[in-house]
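Below sits the subject:
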Amino acid sequence: MTDSVFPLIIETGIGVDLTGDDATKAAMRAVEDTIRRVLFPRMRDILPGNDRANMRVEATIAVPGADRVDTDAVRARFPYGQVSVTAVEGGHRQPNGLIDDDGNEGVILIAVAVIEVGW
């Protein structure tokens, strides 16, 4: 098969950092949530050259503080494929009820991932 098929599959996931206000951690957890719920048992059979390296993966992560996301760290969570990661402003930030030693209120940071797979 040489024709490009994109996207073939779309999946979503949610990631949360409960106390650290860490956009990268929430983004990686959203990707991991998505990956752990999906199985593509015959994907290799339909990829060009029957090679998972030819799989195209595009991840869009919506998270508060998108400019703080280390997209290389998020990309590294994918086991194979030609992966691109884009962080966009979105998700949710919620007070968590904790107060640090400086009197600052802690937050829960929630990221949403949309992952598209094809070739």
The beta strands are 9-17, 56-62, 82-88, 92-99, 105-118. The chain has one domain: 9-118. The CA atoms of residues 57 and 65 lie 23 Å apart.
